[in-house]
Here is the input.
Amino acid sequence: MKPEGAQEPAPEPIAPVPEATEPAHRRGIHSFVTRRGRMTTAQARALANLGPQYEIAFDPLVRDLVGNAQPTDAGGQRRYPRTILEIGFGMGGATAHIAGLMPDTLFIGCEVHEAGVGALLKLIGDLGLANIRIVPHDAVDVVHTMIAPATLDGIHIFFPDPWPKKRHHKRRLIQAPFVRELAEKLKPGAYIHCATDWQPYAEQMLEVLGTEPLLTNTATGYAPRPAYRPLTKFELRGLRLGHGVWDLVFRRV
Ligand SMILES: C[S@@+](CC[C@H](N)C(=O)[O-])C[C@H]1O[C@@H](n2cnc3c(N)ncnc32)[C@H](O)[C@@H]1O
Here is the structure.
């Protein structure tokens, strides 16, 4: 019990909120929510059987993932002359499709959703794809610590979570500090390809990519869908209903 007449301690002065100069993820804001999601038996089997061969664990001591992930032949030559990073591959349908079209390119996919990792591993097994590696971790950390500058030939970010509510916009992946990091990881002339079906996010992408000095737009505004990006069932249905999809393709200067 408080002694009679005791003074309440003076309230702590409220410190001003510091300017958000740090990238969002370093302030503990993530572009995803961890979904437990049910995994099918086939996905779990693929995870157990193929995971050890195709997954690369997040390791902050690795500074050149592209060099490390590249299989080499007996003479020390890289088997895949090109490397493309995909962020948030979901269930991996587009990844597997594109990897099948480009057998001379190594695809490194980052995804935090375990069922999605299982789904892509299953596709790798079913389709016999050798040119995919998976890092089951937050791509923001992977890009920040594991990818050396000027080592990527391309970056794919298809339908990143749109975070439509204003108070969640800070969770969006495509923001200036992260785009600067991504641009630095591209070789000169290499590309970043984003696609979204959420118009306000498309506008943000155009603004952020368009004001990054290391990047130049390949189109005037939005780009035509490159032929390698498959139309998903969801996208086809949306297009039939008159909904839009926006592709953006920028190159590293
Ligand atoms: C809306 S889904 C789109 C999936 C897929 N690209 C497609 O086109 O169907 C976004 C995916 O990005 C993943 N994701 C979001 N932020 C991520 C991050 N920082 N690192 C890795 N994956 C992320 C989510 O788990 C989710 O599977």
Q: What stands out?
A: The longest strand covers residues 186-196. Residues 56-252 form a domain with the Rossmann fold fold (CATH 3.40.50.150). The chain has one domain: 56-252. The CA atoms of residues 43 and 118 lie 4 Å apart.
